[in-house]
Write a structure and sequence with these properties.
7-stranded parallel sheet; alpha/beta; binds adenosine-5'-triphosphate; 17% strand; binds magnesium ion; 19 helices; RNA helicase activity; Nucleotide-bd_a/b_plait_sf
């Protein structure tokens, strides 16, 4: 459906065209006409499918620019979302004169907000706490409000905000229109919502899955200690333009940011213990690409819309299934492609099963990339850049420098190229030191090798060749590089190059001998 078929203000049609919207999304096509009729609705549609405009457009249709009272109020669960929704509604209102939209949220100078509110604002987009604050101070009045929107309604009506929402809605005239939007809408929440709405129509853009099709979802079985290393490898291999890494605690966010920055990544944290100024700085940095990696708690899980987020990582699996939907929904927006990678530790596999059941999607297991994979991806990128440079630049003076060297010294141009490659691949993570030596200790292995202990299980009569083959097959490490296998009555040891040891351990869960899993651990623990 085209926007001009909706019977909306021509100025809004102009604005959406300028915003690059060609057609309405399904939720917009279905919700906008009903909301324009003045009916209460509950709108549920997948993440990134344009719910903001679905309420923003009919909201603007209702505003009388000549009337300087607050006429519409939108409540959002987080500050960042309030700012973003206000921006989107301002863009929609770009050609409508005399409409003022402001976000009001905690942590921002309240005196400034009061001044703006006094200057005649028709649309307030706020977080419940700060809105209540203004109500108490009587710096905002809602007696001319005809429309209330609860964006991310289920989240806000969840225990945390319920009382605040109730208090706020009591201040809004009873004849108001009340609309609720979210990508998830659990039944208990809809029951609560019935108290605030009148004869609400449920508009659910039904799809089998709750998550968007264009997000590919994978998981990695990891050990808690190896999460950061695995994350780094994935970042190096997939090289996302922007990515968001979700952690379950503020402490974990801080730790991971320090770790990633130490490894040379442009990462910043976002969580509720930070000062608002800092939160704004981080969010702006991420929106304009100064920060590539946003490490966040669930404050960034709902509604946040940033172009070019290619990958969402669940560094920790979320506690609630709904949060999985919202977190991964930060990628794959407005029809783009996205990747969602979840880290799963031990028994969390069960949680992952629940998430899959809830979302009605499959999350597929993926092996952890080896350092070899990382190295070859890095080399590919370097070769690509070199190719571009060779094609487009005059390198003759450099060529003669190399020729001179080769004539004077005892090595070839190939040696020089190889040394250069090694040098350029050493940026960011240091491949050789990434392995954490002490985990393997001194186990009397040969120089450069570490000993691993393998438990093949008693009943299995595995031959050394089977074990070697299985490990080589799963890790991609050439069988030649894996050293001796020593089989004793009860114990089996294998020696592997130190730099591959971690890979072998991580691959363990996938290494099967005669269909049965085996157990591998550092030999110094025995
Ligand atoms: N009709 C449209 N055509 C193209 N892009 C659109 C259209 N409507 C909205 N968009 C863009 O799609 C992106 C996602 O929209 P929006 O943030 O409203 O999604 P949402 O459904 O609210 O998602 P979430 O559940 O994550 O809050 C925004 O960048 C928005 O500008
Ligand atoms: Mg939204």
């Amino acid at each position: 459906m085209k926007f001009d078929e909706l019977g909306i203000n021509e100025k809004i049609v102009r604005a959406v065209t300028e915003m690059g919207f060609e057609e309405t999304t399904p939720i917009q096509a279905r919700a906008i006409p009903v909301v324009m009729e003045g009916r209460d609705i509950i709108g549920q549609a997948q993440t990134g499918t344009g719910k903001t405009a679905a309420f923003g457009i009919p909201l603007l249709e209702r505003i009388d620019p000549k009337d300087k009272h607050v006429q519409a109020i939108v409540l959002c669960p987080t500050r960042e979302l309030a700012i973003q929704v206000a921006d989107e509604i301002r863009r929609l209102a770009k050609f409508m004169h005399g409409i003022k939209v402001i976000p009001i949220y905690g942590g921002q100078d309240i005196v400034k907000q009061i001044r703006s509110l006094k200057s005649g604002v028709q649309v307030v987009i706020g977080t419940p706490g700060r809105v209540m604050d203004h109500m108490r101070r009587k710096t905002v009045k809602f007696d001319h409000v005809t429309m209330a929107v609860l964006d991310e309604a289920d989240e806000m009506l969840n225990m945390g905000f319920r009382d605040d929402i109730e208090t706020i809605l009591k201040e809004v005239p009873h004849e108001r229109q009340t609309v609720l939007f979210s990508a998830t809408m659990p039944q208990p929440i809809m029951d609560i919502a019935a108290q605030y709405q009148k004869d609400a129509q449920l508009i659910r853009v039904v799809r089998k899955e709750l998550t968007v099709k264009n997000i590919e979802q994978y998981y990695f079985e990891v050990r808690p200690k190896s999460k950061e290393e695995v994350l780094s490898r994935l970042l190096d291999i997939y090289n996302p333009h922007l990515s968001i890494v979700f952690c379950n605690t503020k402490k974990q966010v801080d730790e991971l940011v320090t770790g990633l920055q130490g490894r040379g990544y442009f990462a910043e944290g976002l969580h509720g213990d930070m000062k608002q100024q800092q939160r704004d700085r981080v969010m702006n940095g991420f929106r304009n690409g100064r920060t590539d990696i946003l490490v966040a708690t669930d404050v960034a899980a709902r509604g946040i819309d940033v172009d070019d987020v290619d990958i969402v990582f669940n560094y920790d699996l979320p506690q609630d299934e709904e949060y999985y939907v919202h977190r991964i929904g930060r990628t794959g927006r407005a029809g783009r492609m996205g990747l969602a990678f979840s880290f799963v530790v031990g028994r969390e596999v069960y949680k992952l099963k629940e998430i899959q059941r809830y979302c009605k999607t499959k999350i597929i297991a993926k092996p952890i990339p080896s350092l070899n994979d990382v190295a070859s991806t890095k080399a590919d990128m370097i070769f690509k850049n070199l190719g571009d440079m060779i094609a487009s630049e005059d390198l003759s003076s450099y060529i003669s420098m190399i020729e001179n060297r080769v004539n004077e010294e005892d090595y070839t141009a190939m040696d020089i190229a190889a040394a250069f490659l090694k040098m350029s691949m050493r940026d960011g993570t240091d491949v050789d030191s990434a392995m954490g030596d002490d985990e393997f200790g001194d186990t009397g292995a040969q120089e450069g090798m570490v000993r691993l202990f393998i438990n093949v299980g008693r009943q299995q009569k595995a031959r050394p060749g089977d074990i070697l083959g299985a490990i080589a097959g799963e890790t991609g490490i050439s069988g030649r590089l894996i050293g001796s296998i020593d089989m004793y009555d009860k114990y089996t040891f294998v020696e592997v190059p130190r730099e591959y040891a971690q890979d072998v351990l991580r691959a363990m869960d996938h290494v099967k001998i005669k269909g049965k899993s085996i157990n591998i651990e550092p030999a110094n623990r025995k």
